[in-house]
Predict the 3D structure of the following.
Amino acid sequence: MTDLADFTRLADRDRNLCTVSTLRGDGTIQSTLVNAGVLKHPLTGADVVGTVVFGASRKLVNLRAHPRMTVLARASWNWAAVEGPVWIAGPDDPAAGVDPERLRLLLREVFAAAGGTHDDWDEYDRVMAAERRTVLLVTPERVYGNS
């Protein structure tokens, strides 16, 4: 049985590069590549899969209308998928309990969970704010694969 530990192990093997799929307004699927990782939800403490996206991204438009996503990690022929509802927090998507300071720190937490490091966190914060970056957290309802 595949679980979040398998997802993390596979994501780590390919620099946390994962495929995410969202539902477009016309009912077709849109997929793209992101960095993603497992972390604790800032409000519930539950394990979730997180990623950070541009404030003007197409996947964010899709998720505002249909807040569900699949995240797929793979390494060679092994893969693990996580499906579930998406919690959105960003400058254009306020979330209860997440003020601007908490969002700034949460963007860092998701970045680190997805394997990121940075030499200048002030610059990182500046870029995230300028690009209106948004946090997406998937609560796992289904985790499956062949890992």
The mean pLDDT is 96.
